[in-house]
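Running this now, will post back.
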Amino acid sequence: MSYQERNIVTYLLTGIIVMAVYSVHMHGQFQAGLLDGPDAGIQIGWSAIKLIGGSIIVTIIVSILVSLANAIITRETEFDTADERDKLIDLIGMKVGFITFSIFFVGGMIWLALGAPMQFILLGFIYAMFIASLIEGATRLVLYRRGF
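Update: finished.
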């Protein structure tokens, strides 16, 4: 497995773990009734800020640990550098992720226009970003595996 593939898998697994923790947190807030009142937007906003900060910290820590473990196991000290193919794969992955999020965004706006509660739309956008990120990573991984 190449350096880029290992990083993609690390980011995907880290993202899944972070979103699982976030989902448990939000489920607790929903059960407590904090997402029903007029302050629901505030609760969702603060939880999103915590999600972003937490995911950055967790991703950095996990990336360092995976790099250290890989260096110890394989005795490799040099990392692959990004070439034109890597940049093209990244651009294709970002394009697919952007299109995915755009579809969810338009769907959310239509749902909002049909009378859906705002707090569900906000949560939907957070999960749409997560799903788009997963699809972006999966696309990049598939392209690396196919030898694009």
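DSSP finds four helices and no strands in the chain. More later if anyone needs it.
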